[in-house]
Design brief:
With 369 residues, the chain is α+β, with helices and mostly antiparallel strands. The protein has 2 domains: 100 residues, Four Helix Bundle (Hemerythrin (Met), subunit A); 190 residues, Cyclophilin. It is built from 11 helices and 12 strands. The strands form 3 sheets. The protein has an 8-stranded antiparallel beta sheet with strand order 4-5-9-8-10-3-2-11, with helices on both faces. Strands 1-12 form a two-stranded antiparallel sheet. The chain is globular, with a radius of gyration of 21 Å. The two termini are 27 Å apart.
């Protein structure tokens, strides 16, 4: 199954380069490329860190923790500009927020999780002390490492606040597997390992189909069938005439609907693109905004005929920018590569998957509705 794609547009962007990207987009809007007449360059800096995207995509309401998270993430601009005084001030304010709001933060956790949360917040306090010291001594790499560790601790605390699965999947999809949470999947390729986090909170059917096929060993020994620089690396086409996964019981190819969740909406939209919905300026909860975004392929003709083929989005900030890549709102993202980016950048059509295994979260997979 070939994924529908704007290859001509991508090629044009490669030729013209980032310096005239805005002119290209304007020309595309004038020529009537769907959605671009209403679109504009994204305001501010798009979030391109997969760990940050996954933290922001958690279905939790934790204002204090999330404010602390966003404060630390927002230090990137000052760090790039080497504004160390501003960085030190930002970290000190974050320490103050943690100190003054610690009790309120802890009240949000269940009795069963409060002890674990207390330990995490104590760890976070120590990490912020280290972060402040690296800012004061103007050490860029240690600052980045300390910030990464602090944000990971915040993410661990936020994950404890996830309650029951946040929405009901439509009954028409009851026959399909679903991932009611997250899973970590290791994909061993001919060039090395990729570690991915698959998000069932925001794409339960897509993530569920993927994890189910991983558990079945479906992807083992499959080649990459398509590789385009700065665009996609695709796999999942089984050996033989079939283009997707054929259920051994029904002898029928199993298909998965297009599934895209938008912030502020309780549940995903199914089998509707952003163009169909008139959401020309929307950003998905799981955007194609970073190298190694996992996307579910479907054909040119149908939105609901994706079965097993998926792709790694080869994000390139100047050629396929976040919010203007013509993939958001047309395909379902369902997870991210979080480790192994050097491996991903080396893979091509001469390579393939050796084996895929679920490292964590297999218990979140439910066989059907």
């Amino acid at each position: 199954m070939a994924m529908a794609d704007p290859r001509a547009i991508t090629g044009l962007l490669r030729q013209l380069g980032a310096t005239i990207l805005s002119c290209v987009l304007l020309a595309m809007a004038v020529l009537g490329v769907p959605g671009l007449a209403e679109a504009a360059l994204p305001q501010g800096n798009a979030v391109t860190d997969p760990a940050a995207i996954l933290r922001n995509a958690l279905p939790v309401n934790a204002p204090d923790l999330q404010e602390l998270q966003h404060r630390l993430e927002a230090t990137s601009d000052d760090l790039r500009a080497k504004r160390w005084t501003a960085l030190t001030s930002s970290v000190r304010r974050s320490q103050s927020l943690l100190s003054t709001r610690r009790d309120a933060m802890l009240k949000a956790f269940s009795d069963a999780d409060r002890t674990k949360a207390e330990t995490l917040l104590q760890t976070l306090e120590e990490q912020l002390q280290t972060l402040a010291a690296t800012a004061e001594t103007q050490q860029r790499d240690p600052f980045l490492e300390a910030r990464r560790e602090a944000l990971a601790t915040i993410g661990s605390a936020e994950s404890l606040l996830v309650g029951p699965f946040p929405f009901e999947i439509p009954a028409e999809f009851d026959a399909l597997p679903r991932l009611l949470g997250r899973a970590t999947v290791k994909i061993t390729t001919t060039k090395g390992d990729l570690i991915t986090v698959v998000d069932g909170y925001n794409a339960p059917l897509t993530a569920g189909a993927f994890v189910d096929l991983v558990q079945r060993g479906f992807y083992n020994d499959l080649p990459f069938t398509r590789a385009e620089d700065f665009y996609v690396l695709q796999t999942g086409d089984p050996k033989g005439p079939e283009e997707g996964y054929v259920d051994p019981k029904t002898k029928v190819e199993r298909t998965v609907p297009l599934e895209i969740k938008v912030p502020g909406e309780k549940a995903p939209f199914y089998n509707q693109t952003f163009e169909d919905l008139g959401l020309f300026k929307a950003t998905p909860t799981l955007p194609f905004a970073t190298l190694g975004t996992l996307g579910w392929a479907h054909s040119d003709e149908q939105l609901n005929d994706g079965s097993s083929q998926f792709f790694f989005f080869l994000y390139e900030a100047e050629l396929t920018p976040a919010g203007l890549n013509l993939v958001d709102g047309r395909y379902a993202a369902f997870g991210y590569v979080v480790d192994g980016f050097d491996v991903l950048e080396e893979l091509g059509v001469d390579d393939g998957i050796v084996k895929a295994v679920v490292l964590d979260g297999a218990d979140n997979l439910v066989a059907h509705g």
